[in-house]
Request: fold
Amino acid sequence: MNKERVKLSATNANLWFGNKQVLKNVTVAFPQNKITALIGPSGCGKSTLLRCFNRMHDLSAEVRIEGEFLLEDQNLYKGKLSATEVRRRVGMVFQQANPFPKSIYENINYGLKINNIPKDQRPGIIENALKESYIWDEVKDDLQKPATRLSGGQQQRLCIARAVALRPEVILMDEPCSALDPISTAKIEELILRLKKDYTIVIVTHNMQQAQRIADQTVFMYLGEIIESGDTKQIFDKPANELTKNYVKGHFG
Ligand SMILES: Nc1ncnc2c1ncn2[C@@H]1O[C@H](COP(=O)(O)OP(=O)(O)OP(=O)(O)O)[C@@H](O)[C@H]1O
Reply:
């Protein structure tokens, strides 16, 4: 798929919800410090695949996963890594901003506490995370106010700050802008582009313009399989597969 250093990968991954197979022999690699867009029609398995990379399916009894998932050379499931450690190193931001019903400050502080970050280091980390997520200027005088009073776009940037505060290596984003207006979306896209300097980013999106604006690489999925992946420009301008072509041209989806 690329010559860059691979940060995160899956090889021959299969996943079942009960008897229903949702991921079929998925092999994919996400290069370090790049943005990869995962695209494909509704229900093709994008979110399910994304969630495998931070062990979000661990608590679902009906889920069966096969295959190899690696963070660099460390196995996400079979090695020494605990689910908590995996989730610290592979952060996730969801479609619907989901701040805790607590203060802006506590939203970030909470993750630091459960990861045993010393108390005296936390205020500095929180300030940096808010700065890094382009929201500090808007909230610096309101840190003790409830996070739920922020706008949707601000809540989403707070959720990104919550993820980056734990210094992950990868940030998974599941349609992070789908509930946002164009101005908030533009701010998040600008933020994502800046974050790739420090993080590897995988973003699920239904917005083809968004994928073309921000993604270095694009992966097209259909019915649980990876149909095609490559440089974003190639996927959109010269797709090799007819299904990819029809999807990116908006003929189905
Ligand atoms: N907990 C579950 N139990 C059973 N089936 C599930 C479960 N979660 C998802 N599925 C099924 O798995 C398939 C893939 O779902 P997934 O959410 O990964 O698709 P997606 O490509 O992210 O879709 P969308 O773009 O609409 O968010 C769908 O058929 C869905 O109904």
About this structure: Residues 186 and 207 are 13 Å apart (CA to CA). Residues 182-195 form the longest helix (14 residues). The pocket of adenosine-5'-triphosphate is lined by residues 17, 20, 22, 40, 42-48 (CB under 6 Å).
